[in-house]
Design brief:
Helices cover 39% and strands 17% of the residues. By secondary structure, it is an alpha/beta fold. The strands form three sheets. An eight-stranded parallel β-barrel has the order 1-4-5-6-9-10-11-15, surrounded by eight helices. A two-stranded antiparallel ribbon has the order 2-3. 53% of the residues are buried.
Length: 400
């Protein structure tokens, strides 16, 4: 058997995995095959991602999952290289407190923290947490928040009076390892989200839409950033269903939703449509219209996850060569970060690394550091928004 050569790519690629703090399982919308996402299981997923060479893991946020910051702090000591993309929700804490929390976690992990700024979500859930601002107001408030937060993290004595927040002589006495601050990632599809990302984020994230739609979003954010004299990185959030053959991959995709009834899908679609003011969620729902018959929305881009899952609802499906080629199409647009996931997350972390990493040219350096070739085998990865039954409400990754 011939060795697999990494595909030529327009740029280096960071591949992150997902820590399923709101639940995990083998099927969407079913109790069969569910797994309890307790600390022991989350540690297993994080340790696997670390050993396999994933760049980091995304931790979601919302009332339907464990707290992202606390969870990251609990599993980080069991990893060596893994970075943690941790949600920060302006409006649910004050910028000074958030600066101390993230600076502390960055120091305790030796500079392995990344920050996912989340302004969106279910307005009813946000109101339950005390945040009653409207959609665009949340982004304006987040702008105040981030100006203070960034100043504190950079070691400045902050004097700031904004429309929503202020700081009078704010200071951070224990700075982060990463200077001026851990990288800020920001996702959203609305004009307000694009404007905030362009002005203050380090990286803009999009959910997995067809390449033409992603290109439009990147072009808009890039132009807005240029007006500020800034450049950003760009990332995409996708599920991955990779198997040895194309046929096996599509069988796995169909199997993932095999237990979904039409009533379950209709209930989930109605709930997601009525309870969110997110432009990104609206775009996700429009991709398939709740129909099983129109799930391949672009070549190998499958929207079946979004039938019952809020947030990122699309997956790249196919054999390793095909999926790698589709990822390259996004790279040509400027994408240099893929935040991936798959059900169940422990099993699929290994499968993705074993089948896809050799073609993408990622993960190998980490494996070598561990003294074993992990990718070659024998080495030491109604419903909730993840498609599982109640009681857990929807986690949020990044909504606009």
């Amino acid at each position: 058997m011939n060795a697999i050569s990494p595909l030529a790519a327009p740029s280096a690629l960071d591949v992150l995995w997902f820590l399923p703090t709101g639940g995990d399982g083998r099927y969407l919308g079913a109790r069969q095959g569910q797994r309890v996402s307790d600390n022991r299981y989350l540690r297993q997923v994080a340790e696997a991602a670390d050993q396999l060479g994933y760049h980091g893991v995304l931790l979601p946020t919302g009332i339907g999952c464990e707290d992202a910051l606390v969870t990251a702090a609990s599993v980080a000591p069991f990893t060596d290289h893994l970075r943690f993309l941790v949600a920060l929700r302006p409006g649910q804490t004050l910028p000074g407190e958030a600066a101390r929390q993230f600076a502390t976690l960055d120091r305790l992990t030796g500079g392995r923290v990344m920050v996912n700024v989340v302004c969106g979500g279910n307005p009813a859930d946000l109101a339950g947490d005390g945040l009653t601002l409207g959609h665009d107001e949340r982004y304006a408030q987040a702008s105040d928040f981030l100006q203070i937060w960034r100043g504190l993290m950079a070691g400045e004595k902050v004097e700031f009076a904004g429309e929503y927040l202020s700081s009078r002589g704010g200071r951070l006495l224990f700075p982060p390892v990463q200077r001026p601050h851990p990288p800020l990632y920001f996702g959203g599809s609305s004009p307000a989200a694009h404007a905030l990302a362009a002005a203050q984020a380090d990286a803009y994230l999009t959910w997995g839409e067809p390449p033409a739609a992603v290109a439009e979003k990147i072009a808009d954010v890039r132009a807005r950033a240029a007006a500020h004299g800034r450049t950003l990185r760009y990332g995409i959030r996708l599920h991955l269903i990779v198997r040895e053959t194309e046929g096996k991959a599509w069988d796995a995709a169909r199997d993932l939703i095999r237990h979904l009834s039409d009533d379950t899908i209709a209930t989930a679609q109605r709930k997601l449509s009525l309870e969110s003011d997110s432009e990104g969620q609206r775009r996700m729902l429009a991709l398939h219209g709740g129909s099983r018959e129109r799930l391949e929305i672009a070549p190998n881009l499958w929207a079946g996850v979004g039938l019952v899952r809020g947030g990122a609802g699309t997956a790249l499906v196919g054999d390793p060569e095909t999926v790698a080629a589709r990822i390259r199409e996004y790279q040509v647009l400027g994408i240099d970060t893929v935040i991936a996931s798959g059900y169940p997350h422990l099993d699929e972390a290994y499968r993705v690394a074993e089948l896809l990493f050799p073609l993408l040219g990622v993960g190998r350096a980490r494996a070598a550091e561990g003294g074993a070739n992990l990718l070659a085998g024998g080495g030491s990865f109604s419903t909730t928004s993840d498609g599982f039954p109640p009681p857990a409400p929807s986690p949020v990754e990044a909504r606009a």
